[in-house]
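Hi everyone, sorry if this is the wrong subforum. Our group has a chain we'd like a structural model of before ordering constructs, and none of us has done structure prediction before. Sequence below.
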Amino acid sequence: MSVRTLSERELNRATLDRQLLLRRSEMDAAQAVEHLVGLQTQIPPNHYVALWSRLTDFDPQGFSQRFQDREFVRISLQRSTIHTVTARDCLPLRGLLQPVQERSLKGAFGKRLQGIDLAELAQCARESAEQEPYTLNDLGKLLAESYPGHDVQALAAAARNNLALVQVTPRGLWQQGGQAKHTTAEHWLGNAKAVPAMQAEELVLRYLTAFGPASVMDAQSWSGLTGLREVFEKLRADLVVFQSESGTELFDLPDAPRPGEDVPAPARFLPDYDNVFIGHKERGRINDPRVPKEKVFAGNTPISTFTVDGWIRGVWKVETDRKRTTGTMNLTPLVAVTKAQRADLESEGAGLLEFLVPGADHDVRWIEDENG
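Answer:
Right subforum, don't worry. Here is the predicted structure as tokens:
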């Protein structure tokens, strides 16, 4: 039986649809966050822009209150990076992804932690963090009292990667700041009993729901897990199989939406490190091939992007005065955009500006790429 080849444009439209970016969804915020298997949010306010771009009538104050009420948390999960997830998903996901945290710790701090019983250290850190939330630096200093001569940063990382530490509020609340202080998810969420880890099969099916069609390597790159080929093979009979233009095998759910490549895709504004950009090993399905990767993804440098016709084709930044009486949306196209596309971006950008700086004097400006 021949395998159908999906064009990059078909993959683009399918991904946008799954990511709630082809049209705004009527989903509740919790439904959306669970559908997307979390939102990557190294930058605390990122979940607000991510959800504004995906949901109709998104209420940031309401989401913030629910975050305050511990319906959502921010915790290290996929790829050992901070994600916003629901309380319901938090511990099951962390249990499954714990090997990712451990591998990351060995790679970054393994030599500096030699001779330490990590289980003992984790218990020591748990007792401290459950009495009072700490920044990682302060937690590391506290642990150094029990582990003299060891690097404070490495001790803190060992606590972070061996415990399910969440960042407590006010960090992550709407237009509020706050240090990144941590306590355990079990303590924050009131889970006295052990919570079973999510099964890998469930994670793969949920990944395909939000990111498919996708390859084994896509799922591994997104999650940080290894050995998922065996999981995909176990599920193969219940999946449909395609291939990319380069011949890579792609899996998907039989009834999942795969819109035609001619379906219109409106302009969308994405926060730094948005799911849609880092959900696959190969980013050709979302990043315009004319845009150099380093201009839209520069490691630890936050870069907010916008899409035109479904593809990342520029970057955006909002500037305000100190009193937030003025707000300017700066748009920098990285490839040529038409007059109609500019109008679409200006309209969407003005809406985002009103969302981020309500009631201020607003301006949308075009800034040409100096290195373009």
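For your construct planning: The CA atoms of residues 44 and 307 lie 22 Å apart. The first strand starts at residue 39 and ends at 40.
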